């Protein structure tokens, strides 16, 4: 079984008062396009939607309105993304996840994930137990000091910008998240917790359109891309 955990409990601090996942694009909330990518994918059996406490009703209503049949649970997230992902992982266990099943962690604000990306990252996670999609770094990378003067130029070969989905075998994910909780460690993404265990993680090249909305101008970019899709 493959279970997608859609993380939509963020604070949306850089998009101002707008909760980006409910921002209306072409008459529908952004989160609709994110969920539909997994709803329509034949290899996804269940979806868990993780939202803020004060938006639980809104999210539940959204699920009914658009008749999203694969959403098996709408749950409340934690204070930070990692805690929201862990809540989703525990919900997956309640839904019957077992050894060998794959958990796909995906940002609610990445609405343009493609069917190919989902298919490929599932395929590689079945082989290696952990995989993610990422974009190869195209620009020159500079490291500065605290006064913003350049200290060095870092070669961009073999450097990647991590995106989602990030896919982890269920029992491995549980082990990684529980160890992080015990060690009081906060990872920058889900896969970083797997790296801590010394496990290999496979990278799948991501589409250039699979971007995460973080700023107001990103919302306009997504609107244009969806309109032309």
Written description of the protein model:
The protein has 7 helices and 11 strands. The chain is of the alpha/beta class and 229 residues long. It has a single domain (2-228), classed as Spore Coat Polysaccharide Biosynthesis Protein SpsA, Chain A. Strands 5-4-1-6-10-7-11 form a 7-stranded mixed beta sheet, with helices on both faces. A two-stranded antiparallel ribbon has the order 2-3. It has a two-stranded antiparallel ribbon with strand order 8-9. A hairpin with a 2-residue loop joins strand 2 (24-25) and strand 3 (28-29). The two termini are 30 Å apart. The model has no long low-confidence stretch (mean pLDDT 92).
Provide a short characterization of the protein structure.
35% of the residues lie in helices and 26% in strands.
């Amino acid at each position: 079984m493959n279970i997608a955990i859609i993380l939509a409990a963020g604070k949306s601090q850089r998009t101002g008062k707008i909760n980006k996942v409910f921002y209306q694009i072409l008459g529908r909330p952004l989160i609709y396009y994110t969920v539909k990518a997994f709803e329509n994918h034949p290899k996804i059996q269940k979806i868990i939607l993780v939202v803020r406490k004060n938006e639980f009703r809104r999210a539940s209503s959204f699920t009914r309105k658009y008749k999203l049949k694969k959403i098996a649970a709408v749950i409340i997230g934690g204070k930070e993304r990692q805690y929201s992902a862990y809540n989703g992982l525990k919900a997956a266990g309640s839904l019957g996840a077992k050894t060998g099943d794959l958990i796909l962690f995906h940002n609610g604000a990445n609405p343009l994930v493609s069917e190919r990306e989902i298919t490929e990252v599932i395929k590689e996670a079945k082989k290696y137990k952990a995989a993610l999609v990422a974009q190869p770094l195209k620009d020159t990378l500079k490291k500065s000091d605290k006064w913003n003067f350049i200290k060095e130029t870092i070669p961009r070969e073999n450097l990647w910008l991590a995106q989602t989905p990030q896919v982890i075998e269920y029992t491995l994910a549980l082990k990684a998240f529980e160890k992080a909780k015990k060690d009081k460690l906060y990872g920058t993404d889900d896969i970083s917790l797997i790296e801590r265990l010394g496990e290999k993680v496979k990278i799948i090249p991501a589409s250039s359109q699979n971007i995460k909305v973080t700023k107001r101008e990103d919302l306009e970019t997504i609107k244009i891309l969806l309109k032309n899709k």
